Every structure is written in structure tokens, then in C-alpha cells.
Amino acid sequence: MKAWKPEKNERYELATVGNATVKLYRRERKTLAGEARWIYEVSDYTAGPRRLRGFSDLAEARREAQRIAGQLATGEASAAAMLGSEASSYGRSVELLRPTGASLELATATYAKAFEILGGDYFIEAARFFSMHRVDKLVRRTVAEVASELVEAKTSRGKSGAYVRTLANQLAHFAESFAVDISSVTGPDIQNWLDRQKVKPRTAKNIRGTLYTAFAFAEARGYILRGSNPVALVERITTQADGAVEIYTPEEIAALLQAASKEFLPIVAIGAFAGVRAAEIERLDWRDIDLAGGFIHVASEKAKTRSRRLVPILPNLAAWLAPYAGRGGKVWKLGTGDLQEARAATAKAAGVAWKPNGLRHSFISYRTADIQNVAQVALEAGNTPNVVFRNYREVVKASDAKTWFAIAPETPANVVAMAAEVAP
After folding, report:
1. If pLDDT is split at 50, 70 and 90, which confidence band does 80 have?
2. Residue 268 lies in a domain
3. Which of 57, 66, 92, 358 is deepest in the core (most CB within 10 A)?
């Protein structure tokens, strides 16, 4: 320890910085053993009444006296009144704030206000939420630009021509009404627009699905805020297919088969007696239909659910498809528009209204009634047992199911008479 050198031989010395001085006293104390020892006390008036801060080490006491004097000289009386640990915390706080350019006073005021607004110390969570929802960070795209990008992406991923055309048409119609940045479109905007469309519930439901896909595409690319797909706020649309299903009677399907053209007849037969979806049939090749093995192979890339399945070819379906054995290429060689025209022409010639998804609904309903095995029907149809049980169980009688699957181009006993002229 340095020697004590008080001024004028007094028992204190002065720490001076500018016009500020701080006294440092030396005092003698007795130990428990009765021996003398020195302590050093720094006099501090910065907090009002004098406060003495004790130290056993002279150098440490001098540093504290010098620190207080320096802060008094710059007018920082509050800082001068701090304990050593408080002063260290103050210094660290100033260092942390230095990159922001904010003063400690401003930082504490902001903290206090934010605490009041949030009702607690949730600043990090609030900052992260704000960062995720900063509109200024969005990539700007109009609705039309997003629609074009989405159609291009779906095309490059090998989606069917029918799907891509429907997607493009629906989005083009939507973009005509919303020539704005896609991030500015709200749920109520979409709801009001959809309410004004003069379409059937099934079409409205499909359009809603298309719009959800478009906004999800935009969300994934930073065109709208994460977790803000506005279509999620739009009312879900239920259709007849979501509850009671429309099916054909055996007499109606017989009439449709009788009226169908040579090209269109396999489409009707496969839908009615195998339950393959219309879009899946459009993707089928004749090589997918194994008459000898007794199965239709719906590959994963051709299935709506992207799950491969084998659909059994029942005896009456085999009879309808037998004249086409050995054919190659697509089962339906023309386009989607041509398919729609064939449906309309066949329904008109048969005197039977065309029912959306009626062929598939009929197959599932009659098949469920015939074999009484929901799980097997779900597997054959590429559906879930819950959906089959909820929508198709007890729709028709078992006797009607026997008649349905007896419809064939031949006329043996107990078979609905048909006369089919199909060229190979």
C-alpha cells in the first residue's frame, strides 16, 4: 500500500478534478485482537446528506474518490452517487446503446412505454412479430403477375392441361377485378367479390380453392405477409357433394351408355363401374388398363391424391372394354373441351341430366351397398373410409347394386338389356 500523504499533515486528502473535490479520510480502527488497522472513507454529498464509503485498500478508495470527482465535474451527480457495481452497469448500458445512437434516458423511456403498452416484458416477442409483419420488406407483385407465375409453375411441374387451364381462367377473371398489389387484397375484398359471382356452389367452392392456392403461392415467395392468407377468412362453401350425393339409377346409366359415342363410351363405363375420377381418366393410357389381369393401374402422377392404386375391373366393365383390347395411346385422345361437349351430347341424346361427378358417386354408392366393405371401397376409389362411410353408406339398396353391376352389352338373365356397337 502506498504511504499516506495527507495535505498539511491532516487525516484526509483531496481528489480534485476541475472545480470538484472529494475528501478521502484515513481512520484508525481496532481489530478483535486489539491491534490497530487503517480504513479509508470517501466523503460523498452527491445524494444530499453526506455518505461515507468505506474501503480497506487505499488505492481502491482513491480510485472511487477520483471517479466521483470526475463525474461531479461534468455535472453527472446521479452517476456520481452510484455504487461501484451500479456504475459498472451504467457504463455497460451506455456501451450497449452506442450502436443505436440512442441515449440511456431515451432507451429507458422507450422501455417503460413499451412495458405499459404490452402489459409486461414481451419486447423480444413483439419485435419478432413486427419483423415478420413488416410490409416494407414485401416483394411487390400485382395479382396478375402472381397469377402468371403460378400458372407457369404448375405447368412446369407437369400438372394436367385441364387443371392449368381452369387455374388460368379463374385467376385471370379475379385479376381483372383486382388490378392492385396482391398484398393489399383483404379477406372481405375476396368475400364480396365471390358473393357477386353468378356461379353454382360447386364452382364457387372451386374458385375459392384456386384463390387460396394463389395466395399461398404468394405467401411462400414473400409477396404477402406470412400467416396472412386472406382466403382463410372467406366463408367456406358447401355443396351437395359435401352432403347428399347425386347418383344415376341403373336405367339412367343404361341410357347414357346406349347414347355414348364409340370414343366416349369407355369414359362412361370406367367412371360408372370403376369409380375413377374424370380427371384421372383423362390421364389414363390404354396400357394402364390390364384386362387380362383385371385391374386399372392409376399411377401416382395420374391420381388426384398422388397415391398409386389398383382398381379392379369388374365383370360388366370388362365386357364394355373388351372391344378396345389392344388399343394404344390415351383413353381419351381429345381435349377437355371436347370431353365436355361429349358429355352434353350424350346426356341430351339419352334424355338424362348430366350430374357432376355422378358416375363416380354412383360407383361408390352401389359398390358400398354391394360388398358392404367401406375400407375396400375407399381403397378402390382412392378415398378415405370416413368420407365413404359418411357420404355413401345406405344411399342405395343392395338389390339396386346387383342390377347396377349387371349392366353389360350382353343380355343374359338378370342383366339390363343393352346393345352396344363398338368398333375395335
Report:
1. low
2. yes
3. 358
Distance CA 214, CA 178 (A): 13
- Mind giving me the DSSP string for 293-352? TTEEEE-TTTSTTS--EEEE--HHHHHHHGGGTT--SBSS-S-HHHHHHHHHHHHHHHT-
Residue burial 54-92, b: 16+ Cβ < 10 Å; e: rest? ebeebeebbebbbbbbbbbeeeeeebbbbeeeebeeeee
Angle, CA of 204, 381 and 217, to the nearest 5°: 40
Chain centroid to CA 159:
21
- pLDDT per residue as tens digits for the range 314-336: 999 999 999 999 899 999 998 87
Range of the domain at 53: 7-100
CA dihedral 74, 77, 83, 86 (to 10 degrees): -80
Residue 131, pLDDT score: 67
279-322 confidence digits (pLDDT tens): 899 999 999 999 999 999 998 888 877 788 999 999 999 999 99
Number of domains in the chain: 4
- The owner of cell 347418383 is 247
Give the rounded distance of the alpha carbon of 139 from its chain centre.
Answer: 18
pLDDT of 78 above 50 = yes
Domain-embedded: residue 419: no
Instruction: List the alpha helices (DSSP H) in 221-296.
Output: 250-259, 265-274, 278-283
DSSP state for residue 23 in the 8-state scheme:
E
Q: What is the pLDDT of residue 420?
A: 39
Kind of pairing between the strands at 20-30 and 295-298: unpaired
Q: Is residue 170 part of a domain?
A: yes
- Examine the fold and report which residue of 238, 258, 276 is the final residue of a domain before the chain moves on: 238
Write the single-letter amino acid at 338: D
Q: Which position has the grid cell 362453401?
A: 237
Is the domain of 264 the same as that of 389? yes
CB atoms within 10 A of CB 302: 20
* Residue 208 counted as domain residue: yes
Q: Are residues 293 and 199 in the same domain?
A: no
The verdict on 68 and 28 lying in the same domain is yes
Round to whole Å and give the CA distance between 76 and 68.
9
Give residue-wise pLDDT tens across range 31-70.
Answer: 888 888 888 999 877 666 778 888 989 999 999 898 888 8
Q: Within this chain, do residues 51 and 122 fall inside the same structural domain, yes or no?
A: no
CATH number for the domain that contains residue 322 = 1.10.443.10
The predicted pLDDT at position 412 comes to 44
- Residue 223 and residue 228: Cα distance in Å, rounded? 11
- Flag whether pLDDT at 417 surpasses 60: no
